[in-house]
Amino acid sequence: MSQGIEFNRLMLEMRSMQTEAMARPKPAASVQEAGAPSFSDMLGQAVNKVNDTQKASSQLATAFEVGKSGIDLTDVMIASQKASVSFQAVTQVRNKLVQAYQDIMQMPV
User: Fold this and answer.
1) Which helix (H) or strand (E) segment is 18 a member of?
2) Using one digit for the tens of pLDDT, what is the confidence trace for 28-82?
3) How buried is 83 (Cβ within 10 angstroms: 0-12 exposed, 13-18 middle, 19+ buried)?
4) How many degrees, rounded to 5, is the angle at CA 12 between CA 21 and CA 18?
5) DSSP states of 46-73 as a string?
6) Does 15 map to a domain?
7) What CA–CA distance (Å, rounded) separates 101 from 108?
8) By residue range, what is the domain housing residue 59?
9) How many other CB atoms are there within 10 angstroms of residue 92's CB atom?
10) Is the pLDDT of residue 24 over 60?
11) Count of domains forming the chain
12) Structure confidence at residue 28 (pLDDT)
């Protein structure tokens, strides 16, 4: 039950961050706000979060397999699916970045 509440909280946070990002005025392309994270920092944080989610899922599955008390199969399955979805999302972002890079490289100069 707590995993469902945690997932809903995560979705609400993502929606609020999206709304906040859409409401921000667009800065000039060459000017970066002081203290604002760079794209590479944000991408690195996303990859680290996916890694942490996968580690937590693996640890939960291992604990269930050895019979540790208090670990429910539904919690293990939810954690596994959460790790899978987050990995798929990062993979799609990577694919879009590669495609954008290839499109830019094919532009005539």
Assistant:
1) helix 2-23
2) 555 556 677 888 888 888 899 999 999 999 999 999 999 998 899 999 999 999 9
3) buried
4) 15
5) HHHHHHHHHHHHHHHHHHHHTT-TT--H
6) no
7) 14
8) 39-109
9) 10
10) yes
11) 1
12) 54
Whole-number pLDDT of residue 23 = 74
90, exposed or middle or buried, with CB in 10 Å at 0-12, 13-18, 19+? middle
Does the pTM of the predicted model rise above 0.85? no
d(CA 99, CA 47): 19
d(CA 68, CA 55): 17
Within 10 Å of residue 82's Cβ, how many Cβ atoms?
Answer: 18
Per-residue tokens: 10: 């995560």
User: Letter for the amino acid at 80?
Assistant: S
Distance CA 98, CA 109 (A): 20
- Residues contacting 1, CB < 8 A, separation 6+: none
